[in-house]
Amino acid sequence: MTSIMDDIYDAYGTFEELPLLTDAIQRWDADCLDQLPDYMKFFYKTMLDLYEELEGAMTKQGKSYRFQYAKDTFKQLSESYFVESKWYQEKYVPTVEEYMRNALLTSGYIILTITSFIGMEDSVTPEIFSWTFSNPKIVAASSVVCRLMDDIASHKFEQERGHVPSAVECYMRQHGVSEEEACSELKKQVQNAWKDINYEMIFSETTKVIPMPVLRRSLNLTRVIEFLYKDGDDQYTHVGKVTKDGVTSLLIDPVSVSP
Q1: Contact at 8 Å (CB) between 133 and 75?
Q2: Which one, of 254, 249, 197, lies nearest residue 223 by Cα?
Q3: Would you state the torsion angle of the CA atoms of residues 201, 204, 206, 212, taken in this order, to the nearest 10 degrees?
Q4: The domain containing residue 70 runs over which residues?
Q5: Residue 127: inside a domain, yes or no?
Q6: What is the pTM of this model?
């Protein structure tokens, strides 16, 4: 659902249509269907149906709070996508700092993490969801990895297609440097973010209050992002042999580990 919503805001929705979709998602009401163009109606109805099913399942388990956090992060993501659409429409190039404040949301990492917790064991309490939604250091650092590796790998393709400036263009504009220099600096920021993640996993007080399965889930999701965008190759948008071989080795032909 998030990938489809991303494409609507990035490539298919007009600037006149996108406020309607953003408003509809914030209202979360089937009555909003009438205000949307046909192709958005299908997306919006599917979204409502999917989350209604999720709400029912979580309510039966006495975990309705999990649905609410999933819903809230979806709303948050749509608002951040709309900010980017306004920047693109206005041909506005934000500073790197301004861009990153919004881009840590558009990276989708927070909604990915929150959603991945929904089916976990009872140790994932309302406090864990609240902690994650507050964007703690390990989540923020993981969002940096996700956003910057994505931007480094995909910015050329996206700019040719027509897209809001990525971190690469913002850095080039703000600091007056070449694309190569901007990418080099952003890669350093990715490395620093990984240092923060490793610290949070090993040395931080976080490990005393947050269950290790939760921290490990956050780490593993970041490792997936690293895999998809490593070496400046966007294997998420343009799935190729690297991704296929990775999925095969993990799920179809895994290496057996003897006890």
Answers
A1: no
A2: 197
A3: 30
A4: 1-90
A5: yes
A6: 0.89
